[in-house]
Amino acid sequence: MQLLKNFIFISVICVAILSCKKEKFYADSDAVLEFSIDTVQFDTVFTTIGSATQNFKVYNQYNKPVKISSVYLAKGNASFFRLNINGVSTRRLDDIELDAKDSLYIFVEVHIDPNNSNNPLIIQDSIVFETNGNFQDVDLVACGQDVNFINGNVNGIISTNTLWDNTKPYLVYNSMLVNSGITLTILAGTKIYFHHGSRMYVNGTLFANGNLEEPVIFRNDRLEHWYDDIPGQWVGIYFAPGSKDNSLNYCEIQNAIIGIQADTVINTNPTVTISNTKILNMNAVGIFAQGAKILAWNNVIANCGQCAVALTIGGTYQFYHCTIYNSWQYANRQTPSVLLNNYYQDVNGNYQVRELNEATFGNCIIYGNLENEIGLDAFSATSTFNFKFEYSLLKIAETIPTTDVLRWDNIYKNNLPGLKNPSADDFSLDTLAFAKDKGDSGIGSMYPLDINMENRLSDGHPDLGAYERIE
Question: In which element (H, E) is residue 367 found?
Answer without folding.
Answer: strand 365-368
